[in-house]
């Protein structure tokens, strides 16, 4: 009977030790996996921001459609106006500007087009995945645009985001809830987000 008790106690000690070890390792594993997913998601949102800024430069506003944005990246181009010629020093001293030189024919301007996907993104970039949240099956980022009135000026803004509940869907639920509460208490969006359709933030990400 004594040996049985000793064996049972030994088993209990091993089980208890494992539970203590696992309780320590669980948040460590969670944070490691969260950081991995956040890194990939931040990169995807930075790519979305790059595409949105180029789109606005071309069309004067952001788009709320991923289909439109992806098509723009894959098929559209950027315009670059190149000045050919120069203003002699003696004319510069007389106050000549580039506009005057253009009118007088000393400088000509040529519009050159560069493919968006080859100019703004690294080789091998897949524009078709802009919509997709990394580490999920078919979840899409939420994306929206808005026109805000700031100091009597109309400002077009956009945001793209994904909630922790989606990005970290298969991780420890209580740790996800704790993370959400922590971020909310810091007045931060409980997930990863770039831009804002409520208050202009210069297209910043909430990780910056």
What does this protein look like?
By secondary structure, the chain is an alpha+beta fold. It has 2 domains: 36-75 and 126-208, no CATH class; 76-119, no CATH class. Helices cover 49% and strands 20% of the residues. It contains 7 helices and 5 strands; from the N terminus they run ααβααβαββααβ. The protein has helices at residues 2-59, 66-75, 89-93, 98-104, 116-120, 164-167, 173-185; strands at residues 77-84, 108-115, 142-150, 153-163, 191-195. The strands form 2 sheets. Strands 3-4-5 form a 3-stranded antiparallel β-sheet. A two-stranded antiparallel sheet has the order 1-2. A hairpin with a 2-residue loop joins strand 3 (142-150) and strand 4. Helix 1 packs across helix 2. The mean pLDDT is 89.
Number of helices: 7
| Count of the domains | 2
Name the overall outline.
elongated
The portion of residues assigned to helices is 40-55%
Let me know the largest β-sheet.
Answer: 3 strands, antiparallel
Number of beta strands: 5
Question: What structural keywords apply?
Answer:
two-stranded antiparallel ribbon, 7 helices, 2 domains, alpha+beta, elongated, 20% strand, 3-stranded antiparallel β-sheet, 49% helix, 208 residues
């Amino acid at each position: 009977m004594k040996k049985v008790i000793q064996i049972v106690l030994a088993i209990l000690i091993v089980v208890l030790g494992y539970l203590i070890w696992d309780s320590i390792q669980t948040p460590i594993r969670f944070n490691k996996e969260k950081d991995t997913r956040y890194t990939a998601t931040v990169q995807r949102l930075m790519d979305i921001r790059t595409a949105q800024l180029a789109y606005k430069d071309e069309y004067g506003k952001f788009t709320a459609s991923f289909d439109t944005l992806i098509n723009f990246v894959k098929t559209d181009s950027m315009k670059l106006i190149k000045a050919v010629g120069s203003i002699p020093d003696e004319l510069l001293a007389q106050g000549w500007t580039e506009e005057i030189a253009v009118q007088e024919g000393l400088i000509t301007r040529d519009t050159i087009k560069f493919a968006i996907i080859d100019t703004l993104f690294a080789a091998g970039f897949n524009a078709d995945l802009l919509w997709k949240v990394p580490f999920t099956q078919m979840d899409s980022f939420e994306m929206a645009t808005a026109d805000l009135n700031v100091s009597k000026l109309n400002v077009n803004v956009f945001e793209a985001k994904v909630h922790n509940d989606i990005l970290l869907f298969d991780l420890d639920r209580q740790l996800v809830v704790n993370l959400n509460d922590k971020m909310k208490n810091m007045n931060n969006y409980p997930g990863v987000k770039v831009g804002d359709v409520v208050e202009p933030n210069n297209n910043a990400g909430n990780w910056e």
